[in-house]
């Protein structure tokens, strides 16, 4: 309920708030993030985090690592079929314009009943 109120009150400033909270600070990857990068034979990583720490850690190994969200069903399907590594951010990506962050009850209903993925 609090998330719904904040999202409604912030309206056009919501994306800016999300970016300033989860992208701009650019915290350094932790040892756990670095350990994930070192794992071999992963086909994908699934996270519910909005921040960019995980992909920044992976870009030390692969500067072109693909990051998908719930909006990228076709790309996820293609990468699974071809067994190409990707990061799936199931609740949205703070770094993408119109990030579609999944945060409120309405957001969850929309993703469950209106998104193909």
Describe this structure in words.
This protein is mainly alpha-helical and 117 residues long. It has one domain (2-114). The protein has helices at residues 2-10, 14-22, 31-38, 53-58, 73-82, 105-114; strands spanning 44-47, 67-69, 86-89. Strands 1-3-2 form a three-stranded parallel β-sheet, covered by helices on one side.
Question: How far apart lie the N and C ends?
Answer: 25 Å
The 3D shape can be described as globular
* Averaged pLDDT: 90
Order of helices and strands: HHHEHEHEH
Q: What's the quaternary structure here?
A: single chain
Number of strands: 3
Helix/strand structural class: mainly alpha
Which properties best describe this structure?
117 residues; mainly alpha; three-stranded parallel β-sheet
How would you summarize the topology of this molecule?
Layout: H1 2-10, H2 14-22, H3 31-38, E1 44-47, H4 53-58, E2 67-69, H5 73-82, E3 86-89, H6 105-114
Parallel strand pairs: 1-3, 2-3
What would a concise description of this structure say?
The protein is mostly helical. 44% of the residues lie in helices and 9% in strands.
């Amino acid at each position: 309920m609090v998330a719904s109120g904040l999202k409604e009150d912030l309206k056009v400033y919501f994306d800016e708030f999300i970016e300033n909270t989860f992208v701009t600070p650019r915290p350094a990857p932790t040892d756990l993030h670095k350990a994930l990068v070192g794992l071999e034979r992963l086909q994908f990583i699934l996270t519910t985090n909005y921040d960019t720490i995980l992909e920044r850690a992976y870009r030390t190994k692969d500067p072109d690592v693909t990051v998908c969200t719930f909006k990228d069903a076709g790309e996820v399907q293609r990468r699974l079929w071809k067994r190409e590594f990707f990061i799936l951010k199931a609740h949205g990506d703070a770094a993408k314009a119109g990030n579609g962050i999944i945060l409120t009850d309405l957001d969850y209903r929309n993703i469950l009943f209106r998104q193909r993925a």
